[in-house]
Amino acid sequence: MAVAPVSVATLAAMKARGERIVSLTCYDACFAQLLDRAGVDVLLVGDSLGMVLQGHATTVPVTVAQMAYHAAAVARGRERALLVVDLPFMAAATPERALDQAAQLMQEGGAQVVKLEGGAWLADTVQRLTEQGVPVCAHLGLLPQSVNRLGGYRFQGRDETSAERIRREAQLMEEAGASLLVLECVPAALAAEISQALQIPVIGIGAGAGCDGQVLVLHDMLGLNPGRPPRFSRDFMAAGRSAIGEAIAAYVTAVREGSFPAAAETPY
Ligand code: KIV
């Protein structure tokens, strides 16, 4: 039987029903098929591919052409899941540039939603993209593309000034027309508050269990991170699982029932 494809409207309806949204990063057709069949709702072609596939220390070297290449591969493997693709470093430096680059990701890469990292300064860009028919996923909290300015991958929103900025910017992104928001590495209480305040679904990574959904980097949750895995992640290949499909299925179940992330995976 044909399965109904997930759209931004599907995700909004899931939020309204209190159903948790399951997302993972994905970079090729083979995994796209596996994740799609396991019931993952959102496949994120993240610029994290610069680190986990290309071996860079940051996501900064990743280009739009590389994102479009991997997105097109994922698009060929998916059937049901929504395809969200990152605009990489500098791709949204001006609204005009963002419009051009988003067009490339949608036309060449098959992106259904484009994700862009940044706060208030991007509100105009989000509005322009939305007006042109591009669904947008905003990304607040830890912004990996800004690692050189931040001086490391640190949790954000831990003091009241920065928490208030994230709250305000989340609201701004929704008002500008964003359809989704990724909140990365912020305290669980702040993420839960923002998820309740916004109409649009909020997908957390390192942001506690109170978000409308969860996303992880595929390689982290398969225990393929050669360095130190992030504190907020879980190795789903552990606990005796020997097949990748079983690990993905365990992740889908854990997110849907709310048992991931657990307290031990919620540093703040
Ligand atoms: O690039 C990526 O994988 C991401 C996730 C960490 C949310 O943006």
TrEMBL record:
Chemical reaction(s) catalysed: (6R)-5,10-methylene-5,6,7,8-tetrahydrofolate + 3-methyl-2-oxobutanoate + H2O = 2-dehydropantoate + (6S)-5,6,7,8-tetrahydrofolate
Keywords: Cytoplasm, Magnesium, Metal-binding, Methyltransferase, Pantothenate biosynthesis, Transferase
EC annotation from Swiss-Prot or TrEMBL: 2.1.2.11
Pfam families: Pantoate_transf
Main location: cytoplasm
Recorded superkingdom: Bacteria
MF annotations from Gene Ontology: 3-methyl-2-oxobutanoate hydroxymethyltransferase activity; magnesium ion binding; methyltransferase activity
Binding-site list for Mg(2+): 47, 86, 117
Catalytic residues (UniProt): 184 (proton acceptor)
Pathway(s) where this gene product acts: Cofactor biosynthesis; (R)-pantothenate biosynthesis; (R)-pantoate from 3-methyl-2-oxobutanoate: step 1/2
GO cellular component: cytoplasm
Enzyme class, first EC level, given as a word: transferase
Subunit relationships: Homodecamer; pentamer of dimers.
Family statement drawn from the similarity comment of this UniProt entry: Belongs to the PanB family.
Protein name (Swiss-Prot/TrEMBL): 3-methyl-2-oxobutanoate hydroxymethyltransferase
Annotated organism of origin: Allochromatium warmingii (Chromatium warmingii)
Species lineage: Bacteria, Pseudomonadati, Pseudomonadota, Gammaproteobacteria, Chromatiales
